[in-house]
Design goal:
Elements (H helix, E strand, L loop, with lengths): L2 H9 L6 H17 L6 H16 L6 H11 L8 H31 L7 E4 L4 H12 L5 E5 L6 H11 L3 E5 L4 H4 L5 E4 L3 E2 L5 E4 L2 H10 L4 E4 L42 E4 L6 E4 L2 E3 L4 H9 L9
Parallel strand pairs: 1-2, 1-4, 2-3, 4-7, 7-9
Antiparallel strand pairs: 5-6, 6-8, 9-10
The protein binds ribulose-1,5-diphosphate.
Ribulose-1,5-diphosphate binds next to α2, α6 and β6.
């Protein structure tokens, strides 16, 4: 898929979920490089910058997209020919996609250990990392029941219950406002992440923080399954995470409410570190206070102090 098509598919949510959009962004840069015709390095750099901006502009919240794009172009500044730049981007992007898929597999294996035989698990939205862990626990023979929220307004919960039912998991769909009602039956909450800040704050699908509050009040462990490329290096430097707001029409039909009524449709929310028991990552299970160290270790001298 070319850069324009990918950016459009990400912004209209045909491709969605933080891991998937990161892989799509990297793959689009791979295809951009593969199809590049010119040989002038200055033009290449400019065209690459435009391609990167287009991909990065497609959804603002998930840092996975930024990290996937940065990983794909790493080292390009140091090469002097288009041929070398093309081959570098192709191999970087391939490596990112492969590592990203491998990370989800590892997280599934590690995360499954947090689910015991007989557990009732609650999940929110549609996270491939969280679903991977749940399905792995089921595959290993643990008898589990899963409650999945509908996740208004896009109803990603429908995808989740389909994924789980297809894998043979005992699955119950609930509306978002039923979370508190079922919480006393839940043994562990497992969700994914769009972005994790250096301070251990989780940014994930709108409603996640309410789930975390309800879990905290009921003393239910709240576990986040996340690849480390969802950790945000720029939050080390004080950058805040932009919370995407989407169109009114996702919430109300035209004419359904008076035009004087304002509609607020934030897509993600933030859950403070104190409500999070563990981040399950491909480098192991870590406490929110350790996110900072992992960012330093993973990104090292490649840390950028802004998105530019
Ligand atoms: C999806 C969402 C998911 C995370 C993690 O939101 O909030 O929990 O992206 O998903 P949207 P994954 O549907 O708006 O993209 O674990 O698959 O990366």
């Amino acid at each position: 898929m070319n850069v324009n098509e990918t950016a459009k598919a990400i912004s209209d949510m045909s491709i969605r979920g933080a891991g998937r959009i990161a892989r799509a962004g990297a793959s689009a840069l791979h295809d951009f490089a593969s199809g590049y015709k010119g040989s002038d390095m200055n033009s290449f750099r400019k065209d690459l910058k435009d391609a990167m901006s287009m991909i990065l502009g497609s959804r603002p919240t998930a840092v996975s997209l930024w990290n996937g794009v940065q990983a794909s172009v790493r080292g390009v500044d140091e090469v002097s020919s288009v041929k070398d730049a093309v081959s570098l981007i192709r191999s970087n992007a391939d490596a990112f996609v492969k590592a990203s898929e491998k990370a989800v597999e590892t997280i599934s294996r590690i995360g499954a250990k947090r689910i015991r035989d007989g557990d009732n698990v609650l999940t929110h939205c549609n996270s491939s990392a969280a679903i991977g862990a749940i399905i792995e626990a089921h595959r290993q023979g643990r008898k589990i029941k899963v409650f999945a929220t509908e996740s208004r307004p896009w109803r990603q919960g429908i995808l989740t219950v389909n994924d789980l039912a297809r894998a043979g998991v005992d699955t119950t769909l609930i509306i978002d406002s039923a979370v508190r009602s079922v919480m006393d039956r839940i043994d562990v909450v497992m969700v994914g992440a769009d972005t994790v800040t250096a301070q251990g704050t989780l940014v994930n699908k709108i409603g996640t923080s309410q789930v975390a509050l309800a879990a905290n009040e009921a003393r239910v462990p709240f576990v986040v399954c996340t690849e480390t490329y969802k950790f945000s290096p720029m939050t080390l430097f004080g950058d805040t995470v932009t919370i995407e707001e989407r169109d009114d029409v996702e919430i109300v039909r035209p004419g359904e409410v008076p035009s004087s009524v304002r509609i607020f449709n934030p897509v993600f929310d933030t859950t403070p570190a104190k409500y999070i028991d563990a981040f399950v990552t491909e480098v192991g299970v870590i406490h929110p206070a350790s996110v900072y160290d992992v960012i330093i270790k993973q990104f090292g001298n490649k840390i950028f102090d802004s998105r530019e």
